[in-house]
Amino acid sequence: MMFKTHLAFGFLISLLVVKFFSVPYPLLFIPLVTILSGLPDIDHPKSKYGRKLFFLSIPISLFFKHRGFFHSIFPPLIGFFLLQYFGMPFLGLALVVGYCSHLLGDCVTKEGINFLHPFSTFRIQGPITTGHVIESFLFVIIMLANAYFILNILNIL
Ligand SMILES: [Zn+2]
Asked: Which of 30, 43, 61, 98 could be disulfide-bonded to 14 (CB atoms 3.0-4.6 Å)?
């Protein structure tokens, strides 16, 4: 999926987590999850974060293929335990939620996601071509859901 769709979906997931679970500092949690939802594409130097964080994405892309290890569940899990260990469980939780929202989002695309790479070759794939008009349609639906849940959380509806 495109960068903006990932951010919109990460934002939606963060709203749902804040709504249905008791998360401390929701006003910090929501933007953190949203920002971190773009992170897996660090394995691609031409992606939005890949270009900004080229000093990371270029070495990463030499050793890992796009949508390989960095699109599996292992980086957020390793990151979660490291952040937990170093006394930052809040950031660890935001990382897991944001990162996994990205992986879920990529599941609907034709390239799909292999959650257990490199230990399995099983990919979950969907019908959507990244950047296709159907993705734009999906983006609009996600944004409408975002508006609904913002109003819902603010108890306006
Ligand atoms: Zn991706």
From this structure: 30
